[in-house]
Amino acid sequence: MNEKSDQKMIFRTNSGPAPASTLKELMARAELHLQAEQQVLEAIPAELRTGTRFVSCQDGELVLATDNASKATRLRFRQHEIMEALRENELFRFVWKVRIKVSPLRYRARKKVEKIPLSQENARLLKEEAGHTKDKALREVLEKLASHVRD
């Protein structure tokens, strides 16, 4: 059996008998993927682990995803070091190429914008400006804004 198909078999099946159901098969593959991801993350330098994920390994090509481009560049510079550490593991003995994708986070929790109440000094300046304005509509708007003062 050639080396490429040997690697496919390692990632496609588990070592025991074939699972009876699709769910069991999916769970077995997910468990194998989780173990592979842990081994890959151990081979990656500590400062680059956060935000980096193992995507796949097929035909000797290891695919990693990271959350930003600068981290992807640093991973590319250290890819030979990563491959060398990974080849010590049985699952990754035939890895010869690392491909790194940038996959930004889909959602970041944004801080709720707090409206800063109007200070007494700014309210006074708005009233003063309203008094100097000849446009009636603008004057009313400025006076209304000045009324939103904090206590």
UniProtKB/TrEMBL annotation:
One Pfam family per UniProt: DciA
Domain of life the protein comes from: Bacteria
InterPro entries xrefs: DciA-like (IPR007922)
Official protein name in the record: DUF721 domain-containing protein
